[in-house]
Amino acid sequence: MRENMHNAGMLQQPATGRFLTPEQLGQRSRRVWLVFALLCAAIISTALYGASYYGRLTALETLQRQGHTDANLKVALLRAVLERPRALPLLLADDLQVRDALARRQDDAVVALDRKLESLVSGTSASVLYVVGKDGIAMASSNWREPLSFVGNDYSFRDYFRKAMEAGTAEHYALGTVSNRPGLYISRRVGDADSALGVVVVKMEFDQLEADWSETGRPAYVMDERGIVLITSLPSWRFMAAGPLSREETAAIRKSLQFGAAPLSQLPISRPAPIGPDATIVRAVLPGSSAAEYLQLTTAIPSTPWRLGYLIPTDEAIASSLRETRFLTLTVLLPILAFAAFLLRRRHVSAMQIAVSRMAREELERRVLERTEDLSLARDRLEAEIADHRATEAKLQGVQQDLVQANRLAILGQVAAGVAHEINQPLATIRAYAENASVFLERQQTEPVKENLSTITTLTERIGTITEELKAFAQKGRTAPEPVDLKSAMEGAVVLLRSRFAGRLDALKIEVPSTGLNVVGTQIRLEQVLINLFQNALEALEGRDGARVEVSTRETSDDVEIIVSDNGPGIPAAILDSLFTPFNTSKEKGLGLGLVISKDIVVDYGGRIEVESSGNGTRFTIHLRRAST
């Protein structure tokens, strides 16, 4: 008895000190979920920040590539515009009529030169063509007939005159003192430096070029070596400076009257942030709009000291890129976090079940020990009580095992039902071929036996394929679609049905489509759909006179329609309302899975199934996407 009491005392030692109770597990689970939520928030925030950073870089790189292409095209167009008028001063400087008029200065020679310049300027893109004497007074001009003629004006103060007299040639962009219109003055000296007769000048205006640039909607402008805007698609930016000018520079420009009374204010471009050798992110204010972010590209213009500036708005491109990268990031990240949450939840549920089971077992042991201690003096009664409790414990464990087994059988039953339904036709066909092979063996006809065995091998492979497809279906997996020959799929479906409906396939009238009519799907899954519909139609006509199942195809611009119609009794209204619901069937031994699986297969490939039924028959229409060839 003392030994029993001692053993009972040992069993009564609390075992919960080494384990957590369900309440403690619940508290720990709440803390774990809180930490997990904070960790997920941190991961998502970090991932979105990284995606935003990458998306912005990607958008800017794309804009740079596109912008450089556009800028190079604008530079090429500007050079093409400049090349033609540059040749005029070179040719006229050696013209005998020009030299004669400058040397003689007779009225008839000057008038003849005026007419010649007038005829020349009309055939070029130049604005004005004129000849200046060595004293700086314009002697002849293409606009000699106009009220604002250049004839008689003093241009000795102009840089293009002075530099041409000194160096032989010059190019100078300035605001016209007479026309008050800006343009590029291209000049060339007539005669040698020691015996100069004057200067030939052509003025080039860029109104058409600026109009062409403005059509793109993106600001483009040309700056000289001091950063002053000369040519621009935004007229209000003309003669503004890219950066602050010194007092000396401003005074010299004012004195030369190069830009008239222009204020030479700074361009409304600020906060430059370089991202490349000739690319900068800036904030700019365009006329009639508020400040926005732009990508500023600058590139040199060959054969001139100028540089082209080009502004590309970034907000829309960056926003689009950010949306795309963030969406892709969340698409990848959220399933991972969801899977982690699933594992965490499963672990918590498992731990809770173990804790509850352990608590129940400990409570049972405690009660047994209490009862055993109370009845320790009655040995027989104690043994009976112990046996009773052991039997109770065994029953409890048996019930728990039965519940686990019942749950396992329910899951296996669902899977087995779908598999049995889908491989029923191949098995029936295998049995028919095996029976045929036995008959052929009795007749000692080996060739048909080989053909039947080869067909049985193919069908067993098909069963394996079907089970793999059903496994993928159960796991929400999908086989990658591919072009499928509709004729081949129909013929394969008929092969599987031939043995089961031997003698009744005469009722099946198939209008076989032409070879090469491809639809989107996979061969085996489309055969499943056709088999289910053909089989349902034939079973509905069983025992009816004049039974007929018609199968036809119809092509439209986007899809292919497969029409399966019969002259059976139709589908009852109660069944028709929930026709595509699992386990809904009017057949005595049917599982109600065929149409459900068929609809899922068709929907997987972007199609749909329509059904019409009345007392005169049933019509199924399958819409499948046409596969591109």
Structural summary, described in words:
With 629 residues, the protein is of the alpha+beta class. It is 53% helix and 18% strand. It has helices at 2-11, 22-93, 96-104, 107-122, 159-167, 207-214, 247-256, 315-374, 379-442, 446-474, 486-498, 523-540, 573-576, 594-604, and strands at 128-133, 138-141, 169-175, 182-190, 198-204, 220-223, 229-232, 269-276, 279-285, 291-300, 307-313, 482-485, 508-510, 518-521, 549-555, 559-566, 608-614, 617-625. The strands form four sheets. Strands 7-6-11-10-9-8 form a six-stranded antiparallel β-sheet. A five-stranded antiparallel β-sheet has the order 2-1-5-4-3, with helices on both faces. Strand 3 (169-175) and strand 4 form a beta hairpin. The chain is elongated. The two termini are 91 Å apart. Mean pLDDT is 83; it is low at 1-17, 399-415 and 472-477.
CA-atom Rg in angstroms: 47 Å
Q: How do the strands of the widest beta sheet line up side by side? A: 7-6-11-10-9-8
CATH superfamily membership of one domain, which one?
Histidine kinase-like ATPase, C-terminal domain
Proportion of beta-strand residues = 15-25%
Number of helices: 14
> Given the C-alpha coordinates, what overall shape results?
elongated
First CA to last CA: what distance?
Answer: 91 Å
Q: Sheet bearing the most strands, described? A: 6 strands, antiparallel
For the residues shown, what is the average pLDDT? 83
Please mark out the parts with pLDDT under 50 across 5 or more consecutive residues, or reply none. 1-17, 399-415, 472-477
The CATH topology of one domain comes to: Heat Shock Protein 90
SS class? alpha+beta
The overall strand count is 18
